[in-house]
Amino acid sequence: MKNYKIAVIAGDGIGKEVTDEGIKVLQAIEKLDNRMAFSFEYFPWGCEYYKKTGKVMDVDGLDKLKEFDAIYLGAVGAPDVPDHISLRDLLIKIRQGFDQYVNLRPVKLLQGAPCPLIGKKENDINMTVVRENSEGEYAGTGDWLYKDKPQEVVLQTSVFSRMGTERIIRYAYELARKEHKSITSISKGNALNYSMVFWDKIFAEVGKEYPDVKQYSYLVDAAAMFFVKDPARFEVVVTSNLFGDILTDLGAAIAGGMGLAAGANINPEKKFPSMFEPIHGSAPDIAGRGIANPMAAICSIAQLLEFFGEKTWSDKIIAAIEKVLVDKKVLPADFAGTAATKEVGSEIRRQLRII
């Protein structure tokens, strides 16, 4: 039997509500498949923890997390805590500290999911965005000079190392080769004359090793337009930290909304635990009301299982969600339904048992 140890950081707002439903899915699978078992340890970190202790996570938080097989994150954020504190002191700290340099965001239109693009079907929106997750524009390097004076100047320095750029591009090429798909690099080399020219150079260099993979390159503004006008042209997409962050939210919008959007923060070498999360945020306006959509959190459980090598169960989870979306009998409020968080989770588990 495989015993997987999961660290749970439910976080803030709706985080606990949606992660509870994801955990119940793992517990249901545990009963259906005697090859695996899951244990959970909960950490109370986030903005509420910050307001009590002055820390978003414990000083030795990474030491506490490193022994786990994976981290399951709900959401972090609160209106009265600056976003740069909640983001940098937990999410980015974990991503960088555990070298989770691959951010995987599936942009796939599921059966039954709403799509704002007229005439687009499931086959038209089915891509994987591979986002560099450890450096780039979010490296946190810069300075603030002459603060609060008339000559005030801020410097935000993007960091693109050869190692960091090459490894994320190579990861994307390997994924494209494995899945027999094309690869598209998204950059802004016409304006960012150092970082993105360098990115384009590395993409072309690595591409010579993959002559079997169809290769494309777009400027980010053109790519944003084609995400909406012709998303079918994208299969595997590789891009920088900032561009990936923005484009994947656009991808979520065209593939059913934030209620279905999940992201995986991967350390491919498995030297450190990887982290899985819905990307919808803490939604403080609906927190505690029991109406949050748990589907994105459950989609992130599907990513977790695929990372563990349990692709069959990962696919079954997505199929169960699709069945709920197609049936339209138990839908959350953001999909024009009236079902509570727990009711949606329960229906997904019911479908999972009969698939």
TrEMBL record:
Leader sequence segment: none
UniProt enzyme class: oxidoreductase
Xref: Pfam families: Iso_dh
Keywords: Lyase, Manganese, Metal-binding, NAD, Oxidoreductase
Source organism superkingdom: Bacteria
Reaction catalyzed: (R)-malate + NAD(+) = pyruvate + CO2 + NADH
Family: Belongs to the isocitrate and isopropylmalate dehydrogenases family.
PANTHER family noted in UniProt: D-MALATE DEHYDROGENASE [DECARBOXYLATING]
Protein name: D-malate dehydrogenase (decarboxylating)
Protein's organism: Pectinatus brassicae
